[in-house]
Amino acid sequence: MNARNVVTIALVVFVAVSVAVLIGKELGKGSTDGGGSDKPSKAQVVVYYFHRTQRCPTCRNMETYAHETVTTKFAEELADGRIEWRVLNYEEPQNVGLRREYDLASPMLVLVRPDGKGSPPFKTLDDIWSLAFDRARFIAYVESELKDFLKDASGDGKQAG
């Protein structure tokens, strides 16, 4: 297989995944994007991906990797409600309070204990920016951080994942 074929296949896969993500977002928009910022949660950890109105490929890539990590590495916790995934535009008026609370200046992944218990009650995963184009390291980083954060939130020492 020559280099041109490999690049063509990679681009087709990228486009297919991008379209699938966009369709998934549109279908689940009511529960994961916009408007849900002040909705109470019974989850031990809420994983927020905050984005701007104007979205660049890097930001979309980080969201895709983060969503993949949560849905594949924490499927059980997501299904039983211990983890909740939310995507919010931090520039929308109803999300300004969260933008201030988490000191957001750019798109970011934030782990939050909705009950406010534990120290810290939230954690921003700043390293996603340096890992935005290294899928394996991005996923490993988010998985490790979320496992630790969930373990601390559960208070029983039980590790997720």
List keywords for this structure.
single chain; 161 residues; alpha+beta; Glutaredoxin; 4-stranded mixed beta sheet; 6 helices; globular; disordered C terminus
Describe this structure in words.
- This protein has 161 residues and is α+β, with helices and mostly antiparallel strands.
- It folds into two domains: 1-30; 33-154, Glutaredoxin (3-Layer(aba) Sandwich).
- It is 48% helix and 14% strand.
- The chain has six helices and four strands; from the N terminus they run ααβααβαββα.
- It has helices at residues 3-27, 29-32, 57-73, 75-79, 96-101, 135-154; strands spanning 45-51, 83-89, 108-112, 122-124.
- The chain has a four-stranded mixed beta sheet.
- α3 (57-73) packs across α6 (135-154).
- The termini are far apart.
- Residues 26-37 and 157-161 have low confidence and may be disordered.
